[in-house]
Amino acid sequence: MSQFYISDTRSPSTTSGRSSPASSDDEDLTTLPFAPPLARNDFLTPDFTPSAYLSTLSNRHQTLEDLRAELRSRSQLLSRELLDLVNANYADFLTLGNSLRGGDEKVEGVRVGLLGFRKEVAALEGLVAQREEEVGRLVKQRREARRRIEGGRRLVEFEERVRACEEGVAVGEGEGSEESESEEDEDEEEGEGQFGTSVARLRRNVVQYRLAKDVVNGLEEHPFVVAQAHRLGRVRSTILLDLSTALQQAKVAGDAGAGRVMQIMKIYADMEETGEAIKVLKALKK
């Protein structure tokens, strides 16, 4: 039998100066230590390879035959453990299958419950959609009501401003005209009293006229605005007549009325009636 490891130490004989080879081999074999069992953890390393593992056994005091027997025994032990593990897992699998028997009824119960919950959610979704539609309709109605209220307020204001325009262009007729003219003349420059209508009054009338037009901007097709258009047209004609008379008077005054001419032209521009002013000036030249 071949030796896997043999020590180089030789024990001298105590009875004679020379020792026979046979007796030396017997003494070497009896003095070698017993090899420890192979460690189980050595086979569990992630990078385990047989060749690398055998190379670590170079100093092991064991014959090759004994090493083969021990490795064979270790392999058989691992095979039995693997078989036991498979049998145990298979038994657990069978036990799990037996424990799951009757689970179909539970699954069916859960499925029925989920279907009922789904129907309830669908009903709630329909209810929410109805409420959303109703709220949207109410919001739309509220916006429409606000729009109408705002339109009504603008129409009322339009009526008030048209009346103010009519009263403004009628100032000077009847009693109280002298008092109104005296109040306006306080703001006029010196020497303007020689003209018929003050620039302040003309400017105020134009401002009232523009406000009356602006307040119904976008409501020009409203029946009430259409019905009152003739009143606003009379106010415009009266204001243009007053401006034309005032411009002619200032123009005839020469240098004394030059400043008044510029003021009246500015009033024409504010009224967006510059073309009417040009017509008056052309007529004066003729």
TrEMBL record:
Low complexity: compositionally biased ranges: 7-23
Annotated compartments: Golgi apparatus membrane
Bias type Acidic residues, positions: 175-192
CC per GO annotation: Golgi membrane; Golgi transport complex
Pfam families membership: COG2_N
Ranges in a coiled coil: 54-81
UniProt main location, coarse: Golgi
Family, per entry: Belongs to the COG2 family.
Listed name of the protein: Conserved oligomeric Golgi complex subunit 2
